[in-house]
User: Fold these one by one.
Assistant:
Number 1:
Amino acid sequence: MTTEIVLIVAAALFGIGVYGALSQQSFVMLMMGIELMINGALLALVVLWARAAGGNPEGQMLGVVFMTVMAVEMALGFALITGVYRVRRADITEKLRRLKG
Amino acid sequence: MSEPLALPVAIATVGVALVSGGYVIAVGDRWLAAAVAGRPSSLRRVLAAPIAGGALAMVTSRTTTERPDGPGWALAPALLAALAALALAMLPLAPGVAPADPDTGFVVFSAAIAFVMIAVFLHGWSSNATLPLHGAYRYGAQALSFQIPFLLAMLATALPAESLSLVRIVEAQASLWNVVRQPLGLPLYLVAGLAVTFWGPLNLPDGHDLAGGTSAEDAGIARLLWSGARTAMLVAVAAMGAAAFLGGYHGPVLPGPIWVIAKTLLLLALIVAAGHLFARIRIERFVLVAWVALIPLALLNVFISGAILL
Amino acid sequence: MIGPLLVDAAFVVFALLAIVTGYRVFRTDSMVRAAFYLLASFAAVGGIMVLLGAEFLGMVLILMMAGEMLVMAIVMVMYMMNPAGLNPMVMVHQNRVAAIAGLVAFLALSAVGLAGEFPDQPVPDPASATEELGRELLGNSMLVFQTAGITLLATMIGAIAIAGSRGRYGSADEGSVEPGLQPDEEVA
């Protein structure tokens, strides 16, 4: 369980997240891609905290900030999906083609 | 540092505790139902009824619905039973002895309670029918609201112990039980515990008004496994409440584990009695109570405990 | 009590689980299963974090993601047209570009991870990581903690304001809808 192998696992999760965020038409699946990206970044942060930063507590603090960002992004993302659906009846990205005005 | 039990002993202890606790709950439930209805039944019949019911459930033929989610439907009771075993595995039985003692035991318990939501949603969703889905959605609303006061009430018990480990929390009650130090804690825990384990007045997901709710399409052994898993979760919640609030193994004359069993049975009696003495509560109003009343009370409990500690 | 070989074996299991379920999220037909595959991926990453010594962070991640993925499953059922996966469906656009972008991201980050020279300072005392986090939260990083709290409060208020049923024109329970509810032109 060396640092390099865990970083490769984190990079794999990030890559799958990039694929999902770019390829999915539906808003909810797009958000799942973004969640996977943050997942990979969090894993990379924790392995560097554990192996290279000597257990500096500010590393764990940054991990807490990452989790706050995850929660905020999901909450507002779902709220915006609901709002967009109510106004434009759009549940996939292809349906939002014009700027209103 | 405490000494965790050897793995086979730990598994056996937890398994025996869950199964025997489930049997005790079934017996008590049946006896109380008959007594409240005014038809007290004989002791022999009450003791034999759960075994007869279980045997009947095992031979009843299984039914299935159209296009169910097979793996999910089988996973739901297994997940709920595994969560109950995980929650009960951190119960301290004697000074320094517990089947498992992680440093952040309270967070592991919280994660087990949070995953109950997943198990109930899977159970309601997998059968591809409307009434079970209603039950699953109801439980989502109920559990999200009541988890916070439930976990806050138990978190306040970690303050005098200055540790998140269950073994330390029980050790810190050697002088004074938490039910006396934090009077708001145990009532909050019991009320929110009823909601989180969906028992009695808060049995919205499996209620009679939904014709069995998430269990509406279960038949035969699936029904037995789900109700067994539910009672196992109830045993785990009652046992952890007894450990965190009533002092666990502390007691004058008898050995530690006997006191643990006695206090767990006391809390189980309270919960099973609540199941039969209160009518089912309308969830729209009670969720409002959870957010507006129970969370401020739980926070007040934490503040008072912290102030006393400082 | 737990030998290093067991830790390595557990790490391999968790890592494979995380990557395979992460990939299955985008390949499955049933949308509710996609939400639960993502939960499995997060739980595996939480397990790896516990193995690395960040016990509190790992367990809190698992705790948070249970609630989040339940809400995601409910949102899936609300907005996706095939939540149970009863029909096979593929809803992707620019699939090849996205796959190439994902592969490039993975290779670039792996190259950084392999080529970078990281110092070797392991955690001195894993048992006190939680206590150090507590002291850090309420000591040096108190301002960060408070800002995170205010951000979460603003998020809660904003989400309720955007998505609440009680809008400017009355409550949705009583049948009021916002004016101008016209769908965009249909996509072929």
Number 2:
Amino acid sequence: MFCTQCGATNADSATICVQCGRNLQPGAAGVPLQATGVVMPPAGTTIQNYLVFAILATVFCCLPAGIPAIVYAAQVNGKLQTGDLAGAQKASNNAKMWCWISFGLGLAVTAVSALLFMARILGGLHHY
Amino acid sequence: MSEKSNRWFVVTALVAGVAAAIVLRVFDPATAGIFPPCPVRYLTGWFCPGCGSLRAMHRLLQGNLREAWAMNPLTVILLPFLTYGLASHALYELRGRGLPQPFLRKRWIEALCLVIILFGIVRNLPLHPFDLLAPGAMLRP
């Protein structure tokens, strides 16, 4: 069977995922795992933390708006850790929103600086 | 989003990514002048954590790891993880589940955030050895 959280292949008799430690027993969703202290969300829920996009947005688009995206991505995992699914979903939405804000701002600033760059080249040509 | 539009989205992103990689392999961002300058660098004169990453990727695409590392070590370190993450997101869109991912704890993500910010600050310091982190500084004799 496949793990519902990470997609790793596990033996059909497995009780926890070999890859991520998720509880694979159907009735046992949400039960804290003693080994890690992680409360696993009920089977079938996937809450994206958008961490990959948050990092890309921070490094490539707009640092100031990318930071909240990473912070919210961290909150998603922090809340999943304590079993707060509603909170995790909310943080997930915020992370996504800040990724888009960062992307939009980065695009706008790039466009403006490209215009300034062009204007400087054209202005330079004008003087000659 | 329906499954079909998901597929189109992933295919479009993939084609765009491959096209960008080809352009980036052929043209050196350091000299070509077709790539926009980093807005942070252009407006403030400071290096951002991502400065040098296009040049680093250009060199990586040409197989020169040493020069890529000199342009932006953070990019070289993060790139495999980001590629894996993007592949996982793409597979998630296509078939409903991504690649195996270890559960990243809140602290690790916060630490990563701090590393990115500190890298951005430190590479602007005019002190040796921090100045080696500025794009290309390690290549200077």
